[in-house]
Amino acid sequence: MSFIQQIQLTPQKNLLTDVENRKIYTLDKCELNVFETYRTSELVQLTFHDLVITSMVRGKKVMHLPTNPSFEYVPGETVLAPAGTKMAIDFPEAEEQNPTQCIALTIDRESVSKTVNYLNHNFPREGTNASWDINFRFTHLKNSSVLADVINKMVNICSEQNLTKDILADLTMKELVVRLVQLQNLYEIHDHIPPTSSAFGFLSQFIKENLHNRIDVDTLSRKVYMSRPNFFRHFKREYGISPTQYIISERLKMAKVLIAGTKMSIQQICIETGFEDTNNFIKLFKKSEGVTPGMYRNKLAS
């Protein structure tokens, strides 16, 4: 999980309200909103007229969306919603010394359509029925490092004083759409979408069933009848990460499940999830979760 850089809070004397105080940066094809809340509140209503991409910066919300069960929304996560979605938001912990802060970036649908049409025309996805597009089945996302980086870049462009920022924002919006769709494609294969939708769909299940074994890229490439370089290139284009990075992420997910649900030692979990070296496992786990496996277990127990 990767975080959005913290944005300087509005001085108290400049606040117009203590619930969802709003600072707006308007560009030609997008609008950046920075929201801050300084007291507990419930069912605060919010609607945008364009596609909106939101990311939590600090604090915690509880989101109520028409198509989702209510869920907690915290830093390291992004939520997107189609135009016109009626949101209701709770702020269970907000206070003056612990405000919530969230960014909301609206993008006009024409810009999104142009980007996905360009991708479908020039870089068609592997699979019979697969295509590039924003998928509103997967709207509550954990930030990947590349998604967090491009959102941070977008925030910086929108908030700076620069005569060329509309041009820079337009280019960065295209990258943002690509990174979002790549991340959603990962959620798609996690959700076991049939192989007719994606040439790589069934590989997710194969990887999950063989995490305790050695899995190499050559084996995976043979299963989709591609050369190793071609498979590597197409996989990274579809999902934004390499096959090796995907295998590591699945091993770390399984490790978290075993840490939380069993009394296995960290060394046993390392072996069970296919890591060949305990020190490397601990290093990768800490890079992903911010704490070591032992600290993660202690945190769950406290």
Number of strands: 10
Mean pLDDT: 88
Q: How much beta, percentage-wise?
A: 15-25%
Please state the structural category.
alpha+beta
| SSE arrangement, N to C | EEEEEEEEEHEHHHHHHHHH
What is the global morphology? globular
Q: Roughly how many Å apart are the termini?
A: 22 Å
Report helical residue fraction.
40-55%
Would you give the CATH topology of the largest domain? Jelly Rolls
Spans of at least 5 consecutive residues whose pLDDT stays below 50 are none
Oligomeric assembly: single chain
Domains counted in the coordinates: how many?
Answer: 2
Please summarize the sheet with the most strands: 6 strands, antiparallel
Query: What's the number of helices?
Result: 10
CATH architecture descriptor of the largest domain: Sandwich
What would CATH call the class of the largest domain?
Mainly Beta
Radius of gyration: 21 Å
Question: Can you put this structure into words, describing what you see?
Answer:
The structure is a single chain. This protein has 2 domains: 179 residues, Sandwich (Jelly Rolls); 101 residues, Arc Repressor Mutant, subunit A (Orthogonal Bundle). It has a 6-stranded antiparallel sheet with strand order 1-2-9-4-7-10. A hairpin with a 3-residue loop joins strand 1 and strand 2. The protein has 10 helices and 10 strands. It is of the alpha+beta class and 302 residues long.
